[in-house]
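_Per-residue structure_
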Amino acid sequence: MKTVVKTAQQLPATAARSANAGKRRSFSSGRHRDRLISIASPVVLLLLWQIAAQTGLIDERFFPAPTKIFATFVALVNDGSLWDNTWATLQRLFWGCLIGGIPALLLGVATGLSRPLRAVFDPLIAATYPVPKSAIFPLLLLICGLGEASKIAMVAIGVFYPVLINTATGVLEINKIYLDVGRNFRASRWQVFRTIALPGAVPHIMSGIKLGLGLGLMLIAIAEMIGSKSGLGYMIWNAWELLSVEQMYVGLLVIAFLGYGISLLLTELERKLIPWKASR
């Protein structure tokens, strides 16, 4: 009788463990399936593109076959020009994201915590955010010159707004009870910033960084087309002047792969920082 009772008491725990194990297996298999789909979809697209080019369904003058683009890619890698231009773009993107992202992060947390600061900065952000960032570039050229500063400033401006807006939104969505607990324990403003506001806004901050980096990559390509002698944007514009369509596609695809790689790295970082979101 005791054995029966003990077994009956263990049944709910065993069932719960089995359910959790089933959920983990389902999540793992689902993630594996999604990865396979994400790999297969571009491969299928390239195959269809190749078939359409070979059969004459598309004009190869404007849409060269992927095999020709790949041959041009190999040639640019071998002569070193692709590496040099990619490295120049990545350097400008890095410094622009650093210069624009850190002030945006700090100001976003501050405006999220302080109503007077929101009253000061919200109208300015609402007025300047819709201005096309590419339209500001001629002004940046006048202020910063044709050197690296104007291109880095272009990226910094593009990164600044998404990070700022998402960070402030994340802080505002933190449950007020956590801020009240901090005040009750007489936490300083720095302690509230470091232990409550910043960790609580991390999901929105990561979204802002993803948006900012994507926008920064677009803007640096535009900036490099004007007054630059290096970078992927310069390579694309130079290919257009020489009517080298395959080289143009190489530049475009490298930018696409950079964006995809950066997105993957940020997704992995997000999974480490906020595992509860990644498990959904």
In short: The chain has a mean pLDDT of 80. The chain has twelve helices and no strands.
